[in-house]
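Database export, one record per block. Field names are fixed; values are copied verbatim from the stored entry.
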Amino acid sequence: MWNNAIEGSRWGQRAGKPEFWDEQVDWFEELVQQSDRAGMIMSRIKIEPSYRVLDIGAGPGTTAIPLAKIVKSVTVVEPSSGMLARLKENASKHNLANITYLPKKWEEVEIGKDIDMEEHDVVIASHSLVMKDIKDALEKINDAAKRNVYIFIVAGRRNEKEGSSLWSLFNREKHGNRPDYIYLYNILYQLGIYANVEIIDANHNMRFPDLDAAVQHYKTWMNVSGDDEKKLRLYLSENLVKENNVFWLKHKLRTAMISWRKDVVMA
């Protein structure tokens, strides 16, 4: 079911390709900054100054940068050369020298070669699990962690009414729904890992200088063209709110934090 959802959604078809992210660095960094994804994650994970942290799919350093400021070390796994270059730029700006870089997909990382088993106190994967062999990926995540694992992933279908009217404009059969947290939760259960789940319902307000910038952003994010682009422009023209000479699209996003402690959840 996980594989079918990955293969059946445009998101799943694109997100697993590093070259897709090479071209999306600027707008993705702006997206996570405006949504304060780092703040949401940092307020929920348990870390100590002595910890070593593994960040899978680190992107431009959304969580790796704030983590590196307060923990002993951070190892990032990031296959996109564009994202990795931006992450290194951001680390340099903050004078951070405690980040180790692995320019690989998580599927290519070898326990015992690239990293040791239970080498990292905490493992984090924020909206980055898009691989087909999810069972192997989750087992490897569990093996890599010494203390805690935190996975962040969408919760709920895109065709739900609340906060999803933009997405529901488009043909679901054509665009598909990427798999949400319930797939991972059940796969973990099958693996004997009894995880905790917190559903986070937060405001997600995006700022744009004008309508064209908003259209371009969502064209890229949602991969729309043709008649869909016309519908997108009409929707945005009717729903953008102008405040202090900028335009805002205000809606909600629901995220699940799936977490477990190595010492209490294994069967």
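Remark 1: Residues 158-164 have pLDDT under 50 and may be disordered.
Remark 2: The chain has one domain: 2-167+175-204+255-261.
End of record.
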